[in-house]
Design a protein that fits this description.
By secondary structure, the protein is mainly α. The protein is built from six helices and no strands. InterPro entries: Sec10-like, Sec10_HB, Sec10_N.
């Protein structure tokens, strides 16, 4: 069985199209890699700027005004921020940063207690998904064992 010119031409066009698609796909992957290499440092810079802004709030006198620390609905986000600030504060020298360090430690403890209370509430309502979320957040806190203790206490009741 011999192939006709039309079949050969169609196969040649198909092969040429396949090569072009592969070429474009390779270019798209390369472009994606380049964009990612630019976006990652930018995202880190944005995160660092946010942390600096929150830290500045802890440096200023008076109560915290940032909504993330006053709105109970944003406790997950507040926990992430305060945990990072707590780590940063531990590295700061005493003296001029002492008030900010105390404010951060106080807010850290408050958020940790709120998370444990929310864990207990989620356990009472059998919200296993929320319990898992809170346990994951609390695993980065120093009082993670209290979460485990609260779970054991609630289970025994």
């Amino acid at each position: 069985m011999s192939r006709t010119r039309e079949e050969m031409s169609s196969m040649s066009l198909f092969q040429e199209l396949d090569e072009r698609i592969n070429y474009v796909a390779a270019k798209v992957i390369h472009l994606g890699d380049q964009l990612e290499s630019v976006n990652t440092p930018r995202a880190r810079a944005v995160e660092a700027q946010k942390l600096m802004n929150y830290f500045a709030e802890f440096l200023s006198p008076g109560p915290l005004l940032a909504q993330i620390f006053t709105d109970k609905g944003q406790i997950d986000e507040a926990a992430d921020i305060i945990q990072k600030l707590h780590l940063i504060a531990q590295e700061l020298p005493s003296g001029k940063f002492e008030k900010a360090k105390k404010k951060i430690a106080s807010k850290y403890d408050e958020i940790e207690r709120s998370l444990i209370e929310e864990f207990v509430k989620a356990h009472r309502s059998a919200d296993i998904g929320r319990m898992k979320e809170i346990a994951t957040i609390l695993s980065h806190f120093k009082g993670y064992s209290q979460c485990v203790d609260a779970f054991i206490e609630q289970s025994q009741m």
